[in-house]
Amino acid sequence: MIPASFDYIAAKTLDEAISLLARHKDDAKLLAGGHSLLPAMKLRLMQPKVLIDLGRIKDLSYIKEEGGQIRIGAMTTHFQVETSDLLRRACPLLPETASHLGDMQVRNKGTIGGSLVHSDPAADWPAAILALDAELVARGAKGDRTIKAADFFVDMLTTALEPGEILREIRIPSGKGKPAQAYVKVRHPASGFAVVGVAVNLSIEGGKCQSAAVGITGVAPKAYRASKVESALKGSALDAKTLSAASAHAADGVDVNADLYASAEYRKQLAAVYTRRALETAISRAK
Amino acid sequence: MAEKTVGKPIKRTEDPRLIQGLAHYVDDIRLPDTLHAMFVRSIYAHARIKSIDTTAALKLPGVVAVYTGKDTQKIGPVPCGAALPDLKVPDHRVLATNKVYWVGHPVAVVVAENKFAARDGVDAVQVDYEELPVVMDEEKAADAKSPVIHEQFGTNIAYKLTAGEGDIEAALKSADKVVKQKIQHKRLAPVAMEPRGVLARYYPGEQELTLWTSTQIPHLARTQLAIMLGMPENKLRLIAPEVGGGFGSKLNVYAEEAVLGWISMQTGRPVKWIETRRENLQATIHGRGQVGYVEIGCKKDGTITGLRYNVFADMGSYFQLLTPAIPTLTGLMLSGCYKIPAIQINVTATFTNKMSTDAYRGAGRPEATYVVERAVDLVAAELGMDPVEVRRKNFPQPDEFPFKTATGLFYDSGNYQAALDKAMKMVDYAKLREEQKKARKEGRLMGIGVSTYVEICALGPSAAMPAGGWESATVRIEPTGKVTILTGASPHGQGEETAFAQIAADELGVSVNDSTVIHGDTAVVQYGIGTFGSRALVVGGTAVYMAIQKLKEKAGKIAAHLLQCEATVFADGQFCEAAARAKGASASVPEPMVPVGQAPAAALHEPKPGGKTITLQEIALAAHLAKNLPPDMEPGLSATSFYEPKNFTFPFGTHIAVVEIDKETGEIHFQRYVAVDDCGKQINPMLVHGQVHGGICQSFGQALYEEVVYDENGQLVTGTLMDYALPRAAMLPHFELDSTETPSPVNPLGAKGVGEAGTIGATPAVVSAIVDALSIYGVRHIDMPIKPETVWQILRRNSAA
Amino acid sequence: MKIDGTHKIDAPREQIFDLLTNPLLLQKCIPGCEKMDNTAENQYAARLSVGVGPIKGVFNATVNLTELRRPDHYALTMEGKGQAGFVKGSGVLDFADDGGATMVHFTGDVNVGGLIASVGQRMIQSVGKMMAERFFVALENEAKAQQKASQAALLSDPPSSL
């Protein structure tokens, strides 16, 4: 468990990190919380020549409300999200998702931005970020670029970030009314990653579903929006029958993962059951 | 009267240093000028080594040497201590020479100035292999058409063994019903929290080698390693410092230990190797690994007539210290806690292209208990009886002990009914069955699993052990009156430092903190056997007790001499002048069967009213000053005991699990978990609880999560803890523990041992509960680990049908 | 690990078959293939830099083609070795005409060993599928590019017999 040798540079500002990244290009990896990167380096699966540490950049860690949005700095730790009063009130899906993530040590060190750009197919954040229609703000040599969550996750371990770009902020539209949100998860007994993770964000008015967003992780090579579930819910009265019927589409149109712990057909079943349970929980919370 | 400490839940004296990070494990020992070693390991399960090119590695800065199998020919083979008739023993060299036999097989070792250079060196060694066909399945390995792993044997069968008593054919023929079942015991990784590690330092002038190694058996390892290294045993000092768990995996002698010693002798410098977790999963022994077929015969009323178990035992490709012996322990315990007139085990032990199996917590006995308990449940299902009733029907009664089994054992003492009754009362069994009926009417899947187990502990009488079954202790009272206990058992997390100090406290009238327990250093401690097989307290603790009795005898003589009286009585740390009641009586080592703290000699005297007294501390000082001792008495106050147990002990108990299954996902939710364990007299109930908790955790691991998986090409796919699932606190239910106490007549402590009880008693209860929940579908057995998907597939099949 | 699948590629069988037996074009289609040399008849040596996101490994591979029956069928075996372990695969490709397009059906067995086998369990199946997907997408693009090129050639350089 000893990585190949590498150089370490602690960037003091975001601009410095961007210029370092421009200089070292593919040889460099950005170090955020390090909880995916360092294990991969210790196994020598990744052998970057340079590590650019973002940990000393102070203005990348915050949670605030601004311009009708909740804005979260990319270097905000899972623990900070989990315990944020602002988020617990305005967007409880995020603290709930954080509480399912890894273990205490991981939550204390790992960051929301680091996890998102790693785009692990079984990470928790992508499901929530998709369900919240978040925007991700990347900074590169040419300045800021905003990427929609739906466009951000490109493939397994691959995002829409261009070489030289650094994710700096996550923006969540401020919701109206009592949030109807939930994140439920089947943990892999060894890794703690999501065998299935379902994030639900509904808006309900007069007992009718105005909008439905369902993000699912762990099931496919990348997290996705379960659009068939969403369309089956929209406009409905969210009765038990509708929920069951809608949830059955949780894994429609995706190539379902299989591993030692869960076959594709079992994952598909879990996706359907846990989607329904997430919906039930979210609806009960809005009441 | 000083308060007795034995029987009290005293907090572990070990814990402050452990939880503060102040303990010293092998890796915490830092010597100047230390080299670091790392092993190049095979990535193939079976291959011929065509060439090994070390030139690139040797050119790397910091790399000092690279050794291959050719260089280490002088190191003797890795030992196997098990002797069985017609056993085929492969020549297990420390590094692979011509062929590699499993993924993780060490091929070369890189030695460097630091571990970073050593790691780079490992990547730079080029090994060219020619792949060979692999043998992965222990049952198919026995097939004549299977490729042969060790060509010199012409077969993969390491040995065949038939054991048992009674006419099994007649027993099965006379049965009203015979139930058969194939049962798998998957391979498990012990995963001690501290991986293995070795630090070797050779002193060329003294020609002495010191090895710090994370082991459960420092003395046995020293003997074996001295033989492997061809050096006098008294020139090898072996130190087991703090050892972070073993579970049997460090009851062994490993190639790496010898190689590190040898490197230090070659280089004249200290050299260290600390196992990585990946190496730990690849190249530290695995446990279990059996697939068998059980047949059990019964009468209509549930009386068992006979049991046969035909088993294929997976040895791996080589033998480690006890590899071939483990299935024989399975054979010994096939009677469970039942009267079974005829028992037969037929073992076919086979070589496969995997790491060796060996002792893992329970070592062969969990397999036996699981087979017997599953079989008894199958009888109950076949006859439509309550599983508890079948058990009661076949229990030996308390007055039938010592109870002889058809496997050739004599169970020392037992009251199986009492433990069962207590556990049933704790769960309110009758009410639970009512609840289950109700749940079933409501369409819910509730299950109740009962396991009544007995295990064989306190290994063991030397005649039945490969290398001695006794244990040693030296107890010294230092001039200041402090007590030093040197134990040959080598505890590594069990809490014996506390338990032994409790025994000394009660026997010597000192406080627990007045004693220090020293273990693990062969240069300091007299020869001993080690900690495994639930023996450290029962055999090692008895040795401490025996040594104290010898010590007290001598102290009593000094006391009488100093008090100028005929005899003394010892109580509360003081010797009092005694009023002699029985003439000629003197202190002697008590007969067995006497509970601790009640030496029979004490009953022969009583304090003389107003008599003179002298403290143990005063006697200790006098013994060391030696100015006024009885004529011809040696100075000092120290005694050693080598205690040889007359029999094993047989702890037992009842575990009950209650589950509810999620019909949509197959997920298993535990409603209750109750365990009543009887380990005889308890020295420290908190230690007992700790052992039971840990054991049950590992049982849950086996039943629900753990499985070492090699793919069909021999690749280890559960290669990290991201894939090999260990049970964690949050995955486990609350354990409700209680006990009954049936003292063992075998030793004066009355203790039976408890280190492995949890891993033996719990797995059948967990599996049984799940099977019971699914029994409405006709399910009678499910192989472990029972994952939610396994259950879901059963549910799906049945809902489709 | 067994893999199989069917891909429809909008190009005639002969063209697909030829593409799949042409080292230069294969190099373009195989994900991460940096080099592909023809070492003997139907035998190639390749250097692959295979990556999933930031995780990359370099493999030196040999590829053998057998059972060549243009344009219906061929079989191949592949073995790559690198620091991250080894990958071995064998497969059979069948080409069926589907109204001018080609249905490529493949079945195969892929085995990995070493580091990637022991730490990659969680993702290995998905990675396998992803690589196959990338390969066939590249193949289709290559076929289209070839068609365009030949059409362009036809237009710019009419046959002299006309």
Number of helices of chain B: 18
End-to-end C-alpha gap of chain B: 72 Å
Shape of chain C: globular
Number of strands of chain C: 7
Rg of Cα set of chain B: 28 Å
Provide the β-strand percentage band of chain C: over 45%
Strand order of the largest sheet of chain C: 1-7-6-5-4-3-2
Helix content of chain B: 25-40%
List unreliable stretches of 5+ residues of chain B.
582-603
Please state the oligomeric state of the protein chains shown: heterotrimer
Order of helices and strands of chain C: EHHEEEEEEHH
Spatial separation of the terminal alpha carbons of chain C = 54 Å
Fraction in helix of chain C: 25-40%
Main sheet overview of chain B: 7 strands, mixed
Give the spatial strand order of the biggest sheet of chain B: 3-5-1-12-9-10-11
Roughly what fraction of the amino acids of chain B lie in strands? 15-25%
Return the average pLDDT of chain B rounded to an integer. 95
User: Could you say which structural class the secondary elements and strand pairing of chain C correspond to?
Assistant: alpha+beta
Gyration radius of chain C (Cα, Å) is 17 Å
Query: Mean pLDDT across all residues of chain C, rounded?
Result: 86
Question: What low-confidence regions of chain C span 5 or more consecutive residues with pLDDT below 50?
Answer: none
Describe the 3D structure.
The complex is a heterotrimer of chains A (287), B (801) and C (162). By secondary structure, chain A is of the alpha+beta class. Chain A has helices at 14-24, 37-42, 78-82, 85-90, 93-99, 104-109, 112-118, 125-131, 149-152, 227-233, 240-247, 264-286; strands spanning 7-10, 28-31, 50-53, 63-66, 69-73, 135-140, 143-148, 153-155, 158-159, 166-173, 180-187, 194-205, 208-217, 224-225. The longest helix of chain A has 23 residues, at 264-286. The model of chain A has no long low-confidence stretch (mean pLDDT 96). With 801 residues, chain B is of the alpha+beta class. In chain B, the strands form 7 sheets. A 7-stranded mixed beta sheet of chain B has the order 3-5-1-12-9-10-11, with helices on both faces. In chain B, strands 7-15-14-13-8 form a 5-stranded mixed beta sheet. In chain B, strands 18-27-28-29 form a 4-stranded mixed beta sheet. In chain B, a hairpin with a 5-residue loop joins β19 and β20. In chain B, α8 (326-332) crosses α9 (365-383). Chain B is globular and about 90 Å long. The longest helix of chain C is centred in the C-terminal third of the chain and has 36 residues, at 121-156. In chain C, 34% of the residues lie in helices and 48% in strands. The mean pLDDT of chain C is 86. Chain C has a 7-stranded antiparallel beta sheet. The chains are: A alpha+beta (287), B alpha+beta (801), C alpha+beta (162). Chains in contact: A-B, A-C, B-C. Chain A binds chain C through residues 29, 40, 43-46, 48, 118-119, 121-122, 155-158, 188, 191, 193, 221, 255, 257-260, and chain C through 52-57, 83-84, 115, 119, 121-127, 129-130.
